[in-house]
Amino acid sequence: MYVPHHFATDEADALIARLARRWAGVLITVDADGTPTGTHMPILWDAERKIATGHIARPNPQWKLGDGRGLLVLSGAEAYVTPSWYPSKRENGKTVPTWNYEAVHLSGRVEWFEDAMRLEAVVRDLSAFHEHDRAEPWSIGEAPRAYIDALLRGIVGVTLHVDRVEAKRKLSQNKSEPDFNGVERGLAASGDALEGEVAALMRETRAVSDDPDGN
């Protein structure tokens, strides 16, 4: 992924954890002919070991491609940015549309696995990750054992041993203060939930850049 310096982040692990809580990742691998295959799936991120883990349906043929290299794409909130929000448009007209977004690309060695205990651990940990802060969190122990065993036979696990992390927060950081503020206000006023979220992320990014010591 192309990441200009003004869109880079020093907090990639935090960004990965935040995106993984809200959105599924897309695991992309290629076959012997170079044809890409992608599967959307929730993931667990081990920041210390740089490992992403998940599972796919056994009928999904992607796992039969075997171990090799893979790319896991995580995306977050995103929004179209109209030039009409830039004060500079009225000054010189030198503006064009763009897109604001957050994304992370994780590259590494793909390992598929079928061990039942390991698969159950993935399902249990994924459930805990997404359920722990709910009023009535569900756990794998609430389902009948025979039912869980049958479902485990229907999935295949995957681990991505990550050796390259590319994290990007494209939130108008390269714009002048008036243009940045124009975009933030335009997104915030749109009434669209995702656009409002991007506006909030922009405010957060600007607050950090205004306080380089993190105080």
List keywords for this structure.
7 strands, 215 residues, hydrolase, protease, Pnp Oxidase, Chain A, 32% strand, alpha+beta
Written overview of the protein:
The protein has one domain: Electron Transport, Fmn-binding Protein, Chain A (Pnp Oxidase, Chain A, Roll), CATH 2.30.110.10. It has helices spanning 12-22, 87-92, 116-131, 145-152, 177-188, 193-210, and strands at residues 25-30, 36-41, 44-46, 51-57, 68-81, 98-113, 155-170. The protein is an alpha+beta fold and 215 residues long. The protein is elongated and about 65 Å long. Strands 2-1-5-6-7-4-3 form a seven-stranded antiparallel sheet. InterPro entries: Split_barrel_FMN-bd, TR_PAI2-type. It holds the Pfam family FMN_bind_2. This is Protease synthase and sporulation protein PAI 2. One of its GO terms (molecular function) is peptidase activity. One of its GO terms (biological process) is proteolysis.
String of helices and strands: HEEEEEHEHHEHH
Structural class from helices and strands?
Answer: alpha+beta
Q: What ranges have pLDDT less than 50 throughout 5 or more consecutive residues?
A: 211-215
According to CATH, what is the topology? Pnp Oxidase, Chain A
Amount of beta strand? 25-35%
Helicity level, as a percent range?
25-40%
Question: What is this structure, in a nutshell?
Answer:
By secondary structure, the protein is of the alpha+beta class. It has 6 helices and 7 strands. The chain has one domain (5-83, 92-172): Roll (Pnp Oxidase, Chain A).
